[in-house]
Amino acid sequence: MMGRVISSLDGAWQFQIDRGEKGEERGWFEPAYEPEGWLGVDVPGSWDTYLDGLFGFAGHCWYRKIFETDPEWQNGRALLRFEGANYETTVWLNGELIGVHRGGFDPFEFDVTDALNWDGENVLVARVDNWPRVNRVPNSLAGWWNYGGIYRSVKLLIVPGVRIADVFVRAEPGTDGAVAPLAVDVTVANDTDAAVEVAISATVSGPAGAAQLHDPLAVDGVTIPAHSEIVVSPSSGIVDAALWSPDSPNLYELQMSFAADGTQVDYQTVRFGVRKFEVRGTRFYLNGEPIWLTGFNRHEEYAGVGRVDPGGVLEQDIRAIKEMNGNLVRMHYQAHPDMYDLCDELGLMCFSEIPMWQVGVKDLNEWDSEEVWQTTETMMRTLVGSLQNHPSVIIWSVGNECATNKDEARPLIQHLADLTRSLDDTRPVAYVGMYGPDEVVNDLVDIPCANGYPGFNYASFAERVEAIHALQPEKPLLMTEFGHECVRGLHGEGYGTEDEQAEVLEGIWRTLHDRSDWLAGTIIWCLADYWHMPMKPDFHWMNRMYFCHGVMTLDRKPKMAVETVKRMWGDE
User: Cα dist. 419→323, 383, 424 in Å?
Assistant: First the structure.
């Protein structure tokens, strides 16, 4: 048996559009096909940025890469992992169809052990289709720019046949400063043809070095049948634990050794924090202390390069929110994994959501669509499984601005909320509605959320917010979006100026903060301007394609509102 290997497949690929959708018929996935004239591109990348004429292209595009493996790897299992590609990705390896994934932001992987050529070249081909259509999640008919392509890393992972498949660490503060309970669920997999006896042992290190555990963290004498998985759950406690919070983002690392039939075969490290975020009545609490959430919505978009961070801008965004005295970031979809690592390290909480946006708005039948149900369930499982050990992640959200003023929405929202709680019962579940007091699903989640853009109409907005809260008065209400657009460089009186944006943001925020005994937080829309799918000519906002609600421009130049927000949140 062997250890783990991560082999990057990033870098140079070949690329071709397939406007007529004839690529499969023409054999573009075959190893013998000669991709004459195909464009050389870098992966990760958004195809909208490869050539000027591709900005906004929607449809089929093909990617092709030749790579080799090390013959010594073939004693393990080979997993081909894509961190993100938008939207439907069909993968062939050496001419063999490997699988199809639907979803533009969640990572996915395929077992390619039996398809690899261990002694020579391998031809990897991926067809990516980002065409907007009903029953896709989201349908990309609006909302944000529908960037296409393989825009996050691709990797070949070599893992042992008997291995640690998943680790879920739960660590919370002890009562009155006592030992912090530490529980670990370890999923162990056996992909071999024989049963094996396994043993697990773990140590923990923290801010001050090796952590003192109340009891050994170990399990032994467990037999795993061939071709199966089991879950073992060792537990212990951390003595004198340093808690994680935005002000003190203390982190621990679990080092786990895994032996099969007496031989070490796998080793995993998992970073985690000791903290507890909870809902009590109409308030949020972190580590037993009340906390009011203030933060920004953010899109994963960078000037000129689409969804690929050109270097350091993601970290700049996280630090900018902190510098404005914010404590939270929300995104409409699963972000690049680096964002969650940075939020853990820098102390920024995350509202984590799947991109179930506008379902049922254009076609009510989407609520009964098997494709929508399957896709959203996969997204939710992936979101929780990917982020469960990040202390910065405090809330799971099952969707945003769908047709949840209709009873047809209830079965899917209920299913996703129940599923999420079954996967992780340590974090509350939210849903974000846009229909105000006409929402019919707020009873199904722990945190009802609302969005609103009232301009100067503070009084009527307050009445609307109070009516939403009245639907579930025993629960907190979270204002997940409020904002006002402006163009950087315009000043003085009038709509669209930096002055008016700053004034409106503060006016809305103070209106909401006056209700902080049950309105438990506010999240500004948004951190930076962004490209939006084209709207109709009569659309009421300033620009049909470039949405300028950001307190910064797309290239991160600040507007007046940056200083306003920093002051008002600093005075809180």
Answer: 36, 12, 9
Q: Cβ–Cβ contacts within 10 Å for residue 311, how many?
A: 10
- Distance (Å) of CA 129 to CA 25, 86, 145, 466: 16, 7, 15, 43
**280 assigned to some structural domain:** no
Could you say which of 238, 272, 306 is where a domain stops?
Answer: 272
* Maximum CA extent, the chain: 76
534-569 as b/e, with b when 16 or more CB fall inside 10 Å?
eeeeeeeeeeeeebbbbbbbbebebbbbbebbbebb
Is there a single domain that holds both residue 331 and residue 402?
A: yes
Question: Are residues 428 and 437 in contact, defined by beta-carbon separation less than 8 angstroms?
Answer: no
Q: What is the pLDDT of residue 2?
A: 61
- Residue 143 is predicted with a pLDDT of 86
For residues 91 and 103, what is the distance between their CA atoms, to the nearest angstrom?
14
Rg (CA), the chain: 25
Count CB atoms within 10 A of the CB of residue 242: 18
Looking at the structure, tell me whether residues 265 and 304 fall in a common domain: no
CA–CA dist 70, 33 (Å, integer): 24
CA distances from 411 to 181, 326, 367, 448 (A): 36, 35, 8, 17
Give the domain extent around 266: 162-272
Query: Along the chain (572 residues), what's the average pLDDT of each consecutive run of 10 residues?
Result: 86 98 98 97 98 96 97 93 98 98 97 95 98 90 90 97 96 90 97 95 95 93 95 96 98 96 93 98 97 98 97 98 98 98 98 97 96 98 98 98 98 98 98 98 98 97 98 98 97 96 98 97 98 84 91 98 97 74
434, exposed or middle or buried, with CB in 10 Å at 0-12, 13-18, 19+?
buried
Q: Report helix, strand and coil shares of the chain as percent, to nearest 5.
A: 20, 35, 40
Q: How far is CA 427 from CA 172, 374, 390, 562, in A?
A: 12, 23, 11, 31
Record the tokens describing residue 405, joined without a space. 């003023």
Task: Spell out the SS3 assignment of 437-479.
Answer: HHCCCHHHCCEEEEECCCCCCHHHHHHHHHHHHHHCCCCCEEE
Residue 322 in any domain: the answer is yes
Residue 282 belongs to some domain of the structure: no
